[in-house]
Amino acid sequence: QVQLVESGGGLVQRGGSLRLSCVASGFTLSRYTMSWWRQAPGKERELVASIDNIGSVKAYEDPVKGRFTISRDNALNTVYLQMNNLEPEDTAVYYCKAVIPRGTDYWGQGTQVTVSS
Question: For 90-116, how does the pLDDT look when each residue is reduced to its tens digit (9 = 90+)?
Fold first, then answer.
C-alpha cells in the first residue's frame, strides 16, 4: 500500500522555523522526483519546491526562495522541507507529492503550518 505521511507542522511565530518530514512507504522513493505543495484557505494548491530522485537538482518557487530548503534521504525513504524565517503568508496545509511518470502521482494527507504575526 502506497503511503506518504507528512509531519512536523505546527504553530510558530513570524520569523520562526519548522522542519517538515514526508515518509514514504509501499514504493521505492529513490526512483522519483518529490515535491512539496501548500494550500492556504480559499486558495489553489501551489508548488513550493521540488527535488530530483537523487537530490542533485532542487527548485523553489519565488515566495520561498532563500528561506526554504528541500532535501531527501532515500535510505530513510524521507523527504524534508526546512522552513526558516516563516511569515504569516506561509500559513497553509503542506503536502508532499511523488511525481510518477506516466502514472498517477502520490499525495500525502498534509500537515498544517500556522504562522502567527
Answer: 999 999 999 988 888 999 999 999 999
Q: How far apart are CA 85 and CA 50, in angstroms?
A: 19
Q: For residue 74, which amino acid is it?
A: N
d(CA 95, CA 22): 8
Distance between CA 112 and CA 91 in Å, rounded? 8
Spatial neighbors of 82 by CB under 8 A, at least 6 apart, are 17, 19, 68, 69, 70, 71
47-105 pLDDT tens trace: 999 999 999 999 999 999 999 999 999 999 999 999 999 999 999 999 999 998 888 89
Report whether 76 contacts 26 (CB < 8 A).
no
In the block, which residue shows the cell 537523487? 54
Q: What would you measure as the largest C-alpha separation in the chain, in angstroms?
A: 42
